[in-house]
Amino acid sequence: MKIKDILQQNQVTLSFEVFPPKKEEGLLATLEAAHKIAALHPDFVSVTYGAAGTAPRFTVEVASDLQSSHHIENIMALRGDIPQDGSQQKEFLHASDLIRYIRSTEYGQAISIGGACYPEKHPESSSKEEDLQHLKDKIDAGCDFLTTQMFFSNETFYNFLYRVRDRGINVPILAGIMPITSRKQLGRSVQLSGTNVPDSLKAIVDRFGDDPAALKQAGIIYASNQIIDLIANGVTHIHVYSMNKPDVAEGILRNISEILR
Ligand code: FAD
49, 78 in Cβ contact below 8 A? Predict the structure, then answer.
């Protein structure tokens, strides 16, 4: 089913993200985790493609194993991070170029296309206003829906949503929630993303960082509280960066089961 059609239904949606392994040895464990996450019956599961400019591997294996066929109906169209060696492909400088290209192909009209957006602006943008202009271009190119970069303060998201809607961007926006369940998660990827970490979350990681079970519990509760607040304020689409952890996905679902019903 096309994600854009799922998002049209007037109800709260919850989706999860998994990522492929870096090495072939990790494929079986990843598939097992992905299947456990899919068995929780989210509205959909997305599979990342490389990250931080690394070479992508196994995305198709994980996605097609979950979907049991190679019929592609949804594409997350991203420029991707610029590789650390500075090399950059020349053809699709921005995600909007890729989206325009996909739309111009034979199958382009039949596919649901998602794109990324950044409540705290993309780290390469000089201002939020500039980032928003480029976001509008992405939508004009044919992007059906947007998923946000992780954020840990809902105020940041509400503020972003206001500016986006004011700009005339009306596509569904999925709020990206990353449960922080280990100290190392607050390391490189959060730093690179430019996401602000509120003092309340820093305190949790400082206090429970050396107690994995306690930090996992606290991280699940923090993310659940974010989601409850979002839904209470009328946000209908939540995308959880579940980091291949079925127990984390399940913990969140348990905390909000009546709310989702
Ligand atoms: P773009 O939309 O092209 O934006 C990149 C920068 O270029 C921004 O600063 C933007 O303002 C600017 N820009 C855009 N258009 C123009 C223009 N016409 N002129 C000048 N500047 C312009 N990475 C992966 O490697 N694999 C993944 O699976 C993956 N999944 C992600 C999922 C989500 C929900 C998010 C939020 C990010 C994901 N990323 C992933 C990270 C993403 O690839 C990086 O953030 C990347 O740096 C930007 O990709 P983009 O598609 O947002 O780029």
Answer: yes
Model confidence over 203-237: pLDDT tens digits?
999 999 999 999 999 999 999 999 999 999 999 99
Whether 120 is catalytic is: no
* Residue 181: how many other CB atoms lie within 10 Å: 24
**Phi, psi dihedral angles at 173 (to 5 degrees):** -120, 120
Query: Is 215 in contact with 223 (CB distance < 8 Å)?
Result: no
Cα–Cα distance, 65 to 34 (Å, whole number): 9
Please report how many Cα atoms fall inside a 13 Å half-sphere around the Cα of residue 86, on the Cβ side.
0
209: CA distance to ligand 1 center in Å?
Answer: 31
The best mutation among 90, 94, 151 to test binding of ligand 1, ranked by most ligand atoms within 8 Å of the C-beta, falls on 94
H or E stretch at 247? helix 246-255
Q: Give the pTM.
A: 0.94
> How far apart (Å, rounded) are the C-alpha atoms in residues 42 and 15?
5
Q: Which residue shows structure tokens 């913990």?
A: 251
